[in-house]
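Quick illustration, no need to memorize.
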Amino acid sequence: MCTEEPVTVVSLHDSSGEVAARGTIAVVGTDAIADRLETDAAHRRPGLGRAMMSALAEAAVAQGDRIAADGLA
């Protein structure tokens, strides 16, 4: 995970080091906007999208997003 406020980039890698899923989230005030969400076709269905969104939501909460903090993200 890489954060350059207000943007956080999350990349999940497979066992060979290739990017399997990635996404970004930006926090403005108390709102968060997820963008550029992508799971490689070879890695779809094992829950990487959910894992990536969880990591993005955690980053958003750390930056002050209230919706993710309330468990709605």
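The chain has a mean pLDDT of 83.
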